[in-house]
Amino acid sequence: MQLTDEQRAFREELREYLDENVEPVVDEQDKEPFTRAELLEYVDDLRELGVGFDPETAESYFGDLRRYTICSEEMSRVWPSLNVALNMSFPSLFAQFASETTRDAMRPKLNAGECIGCLAVTEPGGGSDTARPRTTARKEGDEFVINGEKTWVGNAQIADVALVVAHDESTDSQDMFLVDQETAPFETEGISKLGWKAVPNGHIYLDDVRVPVDNRLSMMFENAIMEGKDISDIVPFPESVTQLFLDQKPLNATFSFMRTGMAFMAVGIMQAAFDESLAYAKERETFGEPIGQHQLIQEKLYDIKCALETSRCLAHRVVELLEEGSPDARMMSSLAKGYACEKSVDATSDAIQIHGGEGLKTENRLERYYRDARTMPIPDGTTEIQKLIVGKELTGMAAY
Ligand SMILES: Cc1cc2nc3c(=O)[nH]c(=O)nc-3n(C[C@H](O)[C@H](O)[C@H](O)COP(=O)(O)OP(=O)(O)OC[C@H]3O[C@@H](n4cnc5c(N)ncnc54)[C@H](O)[C@@H]3O)c2cc1C
User: Fold this and answer.
1) Nearest residue (CA) to ligand 1, atom 2
2) pLDDT tens digit sequence for 353-374
3) pTM > 0.90
4) Is the pLDDT score of 231 beyond 80?
5) CATH no. for residue 327?
6) Which residue puts its alpha carbon closest to atom 50 of ligand 1?
7) Residue 184 domain-assigned?
8) By residue range, what is the domain housing residue 87?
């Protein structure tokens, strides 16, 4: 894939930032979930590079899909948790289009680029079955009253706004609702987990939470269009991608986008594991020669490199399809997410094996690569669900 000079320069700038500012602290900082202040420090730095979700940077970040994917890969090569916490903040983008109440409450944070978001889809009683949310939005006058529970939500405990998937009882359909912590507070509770340690994942409890009707996502789009705005003013994707939001359910289009990012994340993790494994294979000696001289170690390097390069090619193919606005983008983003995430588990496991006992020491990074990779095949739809999406797209028959 050919990058433009501008994209290449962006990648170099980002690599420089990551090497200087993130690489030296990642091992220590990945032990605990980000506090709000810790994440905002990175958000602030990254805005300088045109990466983020505040009104000013969203356009440069989303307007060029290659920048978004460069970011997913490069950031995940150094610190996957940072990539996730940053990207899961995307619902903050919608705060400026919500009701006046929410806009007024969030304006100072939005202006300062300090509005953290989260996407609340998964429910304790539903899991992979996201099509039938039990969380309800009951219309009462000019408000929706939201009740339900969400789980595993990234950034839940530090978010200013949550985009909540719920069943809108007034239209008997699924929609999304922007809930802000200032005017419609919700309770949260953290979850401790194996990988992506710095991402604050948590439960969200919505107990008679009231939001203005204008906080319903479909209403935000309608209002904006009535005010003469274009959808790309709200979600500043290239036109082809915006079209996918019109052709498909918005949640499906969102997942196509996020799953592409996940495939690039898996590539970033594999790249880091490969680089360290190759260096170690040349340096570590057994039986009087570098372990890289042993054929079975060369086979492992082959396997990791193969997983890395095939996943990278597949991920780039999805970007091409998204850029074309192809209807195959949904199927291929699922295929790439499913494939690359599973491969990252194998590749990081092989990387540990190449390192022998050193690979298991918590003072080294290999075990973090493995924990982060092992986390990949579950969020944004498990591998099993990706297979069923591909199956449905291929056959026209839904097995879920
Ligand atoms: C680290 C992490 C971050 C996350 N971040 C977010 C977030 O920011 N926002 C959010 O809303 N959610 C988030 N999630 C939730 C995530 O999307 C769900 O965990 C995922 O969709 C699976 O749901 P579940 O864990 O309840 O598993 P289940 O749905 O209970 O699945 C259990 C097992 O059964 C399999 N299975 C389920 N249904 C089928 C079927 N029809 N056919 C075959 N196999 C099936 C699954 O593949 C899995 O192996 C996150 C999860 C994790 C682990």
Assistant:
1) 379
2) 999 999 999 999 999 999 999 9
3) yes
4) no
5) 1.20.140.10
6) 379
7) no
8) 5-92
